[in-house]
Amino acid sequence: MELQTPFIRLMRRRPFYRSFSLALLLFAHLWVGGCGLRTIPPIRYLPILGKEKEITTTRVLTRALKDRNLAVRAQAVKLLGILSQSNEDKIKKQAATALGIAAKDSDPGIRLQAIESLGKMEAKYGNKYLHAALKDSNPFVRERVMQVLNERQAQVPGPS
Questions:
Q1: Does domain 56-155 have CATH number 1.25.10.10?
Q2: Does 40 score more than 50 pLDDT?
Q3: Which residue has the higher pLDDT, 5 or 29?
């Protein structure tokens, strides 16, 4: 025998309530769990076809650093950190420049994330921006910059 609650009986009799409750359930799932489509970058970062001669990933990510959404900026910094490990000097330089912009972001979390990525880069690309970040208004950011520079100094082999 099947359990017959008033809710189940109402759902069987009225199709409107069935579709309404399914829509409500879907909305609650998206509200709590988030929508997987948010991981796709907004369309406004794709250049207008024919407007720009050369489309580079670093240029698109630099535009994303100016977004008002914190999650978009954080994802851009993460991707720039990956690009900074490239084998090409041109890409490393572009990524370092973009991470230098991110190191001046209004959010200290984004600045810390950029400092971490700059610290993983070669010194000739990242040090310029790390030294500039020593003047940051947030003491946690300044402390992390000092740690990164000290770690970098410890890795340099001394004269033997």
A1: yes
A2: no
A3: 5
